[in-house]
Amino acid sequence: xxxxxxxxxxxxxxxxxxxxxxxxxxxxxxxxxxxxxxxxxxxxxxxxxxxxxxxxxxxxxxxxxxxxxxxxxxxxxxxxxxxxxxxxxxxxxxxxxxxxxxxxxxxxxxxxxxxxxxxxxxxxxxxxxxxxxxxxxxx
Length: 139
Prior knowledge:
Elements: E1 15-18, H1 24-32, E2 36-38, H2 40-43, H3 50-59, E3 63-66, H4 71-76, E4 89-94, H5 100-119, E5 127-131, E6 135-137
Parallel strand pairs: 1-2, 1-3, 3-4, 4-5
Antiparallel strand pairs: 5-6
């Protein structure tokens, strides 16, 4: 007789840096899932340059959560000879702010999986975009 064992996988704990303008409820969703959240005002001063925000996230191996369309330019630069933020993890929202928390709940298992994969090698990072009708990951 074969003994059945349940294999429960504990999702990895994320460290998340919220960019300026990200709704507080987004941070609350991460906290409810057991992740550590750094609100923007606790890490940086209002109006900080995007490059400083990216540097802070990268230096702390944190997932940067942003609404700012300019942030994705720092992730996309990899592979074009520009490696300034080659370890920047980014979760980019492209949906209306009132939808953000609900869309994040729907994407959480994907984000946690992407984080787990990225932690296995230094050459991998998380880049996920949450849109109104789709959620995309870029590897």
